[in-house]
Description:
The protein is built from 7 helices and 9 strands; from the N terminus they run H-E-H-H-E-H-E-H-E-E-E-H-E-H-E-E. By secondary structure, the protein is an alpha/beta fold. Helix 5 (90-98) runs parallel beside helix 7.
Amino acid sequence: MWQRCGAEVMLLVGDARERKAVRDRLPEPLRAVTAESEHRARSTGSGSARLERDIAQVRAAHETEHVSEVLDRFHAATHDDGGGNAIAGVPALVEAAREHQIDTLLVTPDGQDTGREVWIGPESDQLAFHRTELQYLGAARPAPARADDALVRAAIAGGAEAVVSDPAAAPVGGLGALLRWPANPH
């Protein structure tokens, strides 16, 4: 059931002995993403504030770990031996988004490039760095948009993930992406 629901973490709640018994029977992949809480709901359907806090802490820790892992992969891929699976810079990101090539978009709020102007059409993959380019691609009335907004729209519509990255480890300009396949060298 856990595999079908798409959950990325699990929180065991209940008596310490019961939690240990359940955890010991879990398959290793599931055990590795399982946390425990000694706090539990007082009655069925009602959660305690402490349990809610534990849930929030587990979710925040998981998200922090995930963003760190994504940033590590991005930085490893930007080196010469990375195989061209990471890009930064608005023109390259716009092209990759248009081609549905983005696997994970990294966005840093207030990054230097996040507010740059790009052009969008009515379809999520209609975006361009220059207005005339978008008209050439078939958008009758291109509209200006912030780069971060347009890229998030295109990435999510294309089935990609978008993560908010830590400013200290952010891609240059505040926008970057891990790609589904290597970028074409120009």
